[in-house]
Structures are given as C-alpha cells and as structure tokens.
Amino acid sequence: MSLRSRSIQIARTALRKELQLSSASSAQAWQRSLVAKNNMSVVPASSSYSVDFLTLRSFSTKPEDAAVEEEPAAAADETNTAADESTDASSSESANGGTDKTIADLEQQVKDLKDNLLRSLAEQENTRRIAKRDVEQARSFAISSFAKSLLETSDNLSRALDAVPEELRHDHDHHPVLATLYEGITMTDDGLTKAFTKNGLEKFGVAGEKFDPNLHEALFEYPDPAGEPGSIGQVMKKGFMLNQRVLRPAEVGVVKAP
Q1: How many CA atoms lie less than 13 Å away from 227 in the CB half-sphere?
Q2: What is the DSSP letter of 165?
Q3: Domain containing residue 253
C-alpha cells in the first residue's frame, strides 16, 4: 500500500471517531431537552428508556454519507495513484527508449560526418596531386612547340655537314673556304645541340641500334650482309626526346635478312 493510501485510511478512521463522539453528545443533549419538556427525570443510560445510538444516528445521515462517499474517493485515489505509477513507468521506459534512439542517431551522424570528412580529404589530395602533375608537365613540356619549330633548323645543319666530303672538311691548304665553312656550321650545330640539351631536348637515332617502334619510324627495309637484321642501317632524320618523352621519332631504314 502506498503512503498516500495509508494517510487517507488514518484520516478516515480519525474522522469516524470524531463523528461518533459528536453523535453521542448530540444524543445526550436531545435526551435532556426531551425530559425538560415532559417534566421527566433523566433516564440512566443503563435503563430500558435509553435512546439507542443507532436510532439517533437516523436524525443525521450526513456524516455517514460522507464516510460512505469517502470510500469510493479513496478507491479512486488508489486507482489514480496506480495510474500515475504506471504512467511514470511508461514515461520512464519511453524516455529510455528516446535516449537510446537519440544516441543511435548521434552515432550515425558522427559516422556520416567522418565518412564525408575522409571523402573530402581524399578529393583534396587527388586534386593536389593532379595539380602538381599538371604544373610539372607544363613546366617540362612548355617549350614543346618552340622546340619543334627548331628541329628543322637542326636537320638542315646536319644535312649541310653531311654534304661536305670528309677529305675536304679539314683541308685548309687547298680548300680553306670550304674547311672554314664546315667549321662554322659545326660550331653552329654544336651550339644548338647544347641549347637543346640544356632545356631537356636530346637527339637519338644512330646506325647500328636495335629498332624500337616506340622510338623509331621505319621508312624502308633493305638487305645488308654487313648489318644485323632488325637493326638500324640508315638514319634519314634524327629523333628528338623532350624530358624522356618522344617529341619526334627518328626516321630510319631497317636492315632485313638477305
């Protein structure tokens, strides 16, 4: 039994005792007034003319009715108390369920935010790596167009050098003008080659090398007993490579088996 129900029962018992005492006092006063009107002597409480307490209670039913009405009120209070307790229990369970749901939602939000953060960091890293590669390529191959425009000049210098016979290239006694011209062309070609090398542009393609389709462009094949089949026998144009990337393949003639 709850504390509230116990308090209500104690108050009810005290009220009943007070009502009984009040009823007894009222009965005695009524008996005295009746004796005085009829000139009767007071009848002892033990005589047969004593007024029954139950009879006197019929003159005032309000206290009894109040007591009777208090019983449903007490039962209603007990019912309300039980309902309050059940409501508190259900509220507590609902609060616990709501707390668990809130924690699960927060954990899911943290997980989603962490995943988004990792994705953002990965995208930033990829963007940074791509930008760095683009900058390096732009720096390395920015002169590609300019270098291509100078390749023909280098080719023409090489043709001019090859056009001078070997026996006259250094004959300053009999052919001083031709020898001097050859030296001038050679110096010009050497200076251009140094400028190419300084900027990452290198020549390749020498007779006797193994043919590589990634580096060489075969213009023709011819049999050569002195050469190895599959090797480069003649170089028509030198190849150029810019920062380890083929800018122009070498145009060559390939030796084939006889």
Answers
A1: 21
A2: -
A3: 201-258
Q: From 143, 182, 142, select the one nearest 162 (Cα to Cα).
A: 182
Q: 207 and 183, same structural domain?
A: no
The count of domains in the chain is: 3
Residues 149 and 171 in one domain: yes
| Residue with token string 């009829």 | 38
Q: CA 160 to CA 174: how far, in whole Å? A: 20
Q: How far apart are the first and last CA of the chain?
A: 120
User: Does 218 share its domain with 195?
Assistant: no
* Residue 226 Cα distances to 233, 249, 255, angstroms: 10, 25, 9
Taking the whole predicted model, whether its pTM rises above 0.90 is answered as no
Q: How far apart are CA 24 and CA 2, in angstroms?
A: 34
The predicted-structure confidence for 163-221, as pLDDT tens digits, reads as follows 888 888 888 888 888 889 999 999 999 999 899 888 888 899 888 889 999 999 999 99
The DSSP H or E segment spanning 221 is: strand 216-223
Question: What does the pLDDT look like over 129-150, one tens digit per residue?
Answer: 999 888 887 777 777 888 888 8
- In a domain, residue 10? The reply is yes
* Whether 66 and 82 share a structural domain: yes
Q: What is the pLDDT of residue 86?
A: 60
Average pLDDT over residues 102-119: 91
